[in-house]
Amino acid sequence: MTSNQDKGNIKVVISKDKLAASISAKGENNILDKETINNELAKAGVVFGVLADEIESFIVSPSKEPVVIARGLPPTPGVDETVELLFSSAIAHENLDDRDTVDFRETSTLVSVDEGTLLAKKHPSSDGSDGLGVTGEILPPPKPRTIQLQAGKGAVLSDSGGEVYSTISGRPWVKVAGTNRTVGCDSVYLQDGDVDIKTGNLRFKGDIRITGNVQEAMEVQATGNIEVMGFVTRATVISGAKLVIRGNVVGSKLRSGIIFPGARKINFMLMDIYTELMNLAKAFEQLKKVQNIDFNKMDFGRVLLGMMDSRFKNLRPLLKNMHNFAETQGEDMPEEIVTAVDSLKCLSGLSNATIENFSKAVKSVGLALDFLSQNKEQSDSHIFIRSAMTSIIQSAGNVTITGQGCLNTTINAGGNVIVKGSFKGGEILCEGHAEIQELGSGLGIPPVIRVGENSSIKVEKAFPGAVVQVGKNRITLTREMGSFKAKLNRDEQLELF
Length: 497
Description:
There is one protein chain. By secondary structure, the chain is an alpha/beta fold. 21% of the residues lie in helices and 33% in strands. The strands form six sheets. Strands 14, 16, 18, 19, 21, 23, 25, 27, 29, 31, 34 and 35 form a twelve-stranded mixed beta sheet that branches. The protein has a ten-stranded mixed beta sheet with strand order 15-17-20-22-24-26-28-30-32-33, with no helix packed on it. The chain is elongated, with a radius of gyration of 39 Å.
């Protein structure tokens, strides 16, 4: 409450917060002096922050309007607890006026994180300092606000209660309710409608479900499962696990898991090469220390050649086998593997063998092995679609065509391939078994089916010209055939029965 001292010729008023005191003259033509004013202030309890200059001015020109003649020291507020969100809901796009350099398909603001990511962190509060009122009374600061940090679904609170981490890969979120902050993570992102230029390309660390279509030139990528309820037209869809397309696929590229059948073999090859490269790198370090060699100033290729001809004789045949095998994979290998294979060419063409290229090769092979190791568990990396036309389908697991079949489409699978309709034109390459209801047609380019030497091919009906290959043995059908099965016999000869 405001405190009044109303005696004599002046009135003293102390503010409610006790941080100011003012005086006013009760009548006109009052004759005031400094002693009188000070006495009245003392009677009112004003003992701190008196403004001598204001009193002097008031004596010269008394006023009926209140004049502040004392000010207290306000308390310094503390700092409230805060929660810092370590994920952003927006993506900054620079140089939007430069139309030649901006891909307007890359405009999605979808945010996703890996498992174990720090999502939120609580910063502690700090107390303020006391103030002092004009009455000499100590004025305490307001208590800092506290925040209750909680972990929602897909997240966990640290033992200290000050941090929230994701327990799954997915989309982080926060719910604000008063002083409560609940932070969690959703493993599934629902795209309600089409993926088009308005949504931008979708890339998500988790599962994606799309209720509409994936339109022309768009890309959808997820580390988990992807389900598309509509069509996929001239687009790219890449999943880390199961991929399901309910509608038709036209002119598109689908990929699930490690996306070429030779992944397992090339993984072993790269592991052997990486071991040799690491040992070779250690040998170079020893040479630098013992003989004080600067590989930037000498012929690094000659030193490398000497090492490969003496202490690392296994490296050359390993490189040769790997390059030969990579050539058989064609365009099926992912970019990470292609980069690693290309980087190793500097060890074969010694004219390009520099310490920088060698270091890049070691790094590229390491990254390729990391890529392969992240996709070792491929039991769920299957693709299910209704039909496909002029498309490329690559799966680490099985591929199942549930509808009318495929036309001029390439299927590459690490598991089995099942086509419940027809397969006309194109090629099937798989490590597992292949089952096709109708193979080829009377028109167009005949299809090719290749499986591993321990696998088999089952066909309900086939047309002339279709190629059936098990292992290295192949047969070109010369007549229309009914139901048959193709596999190698004990003599490794291809039989149809």
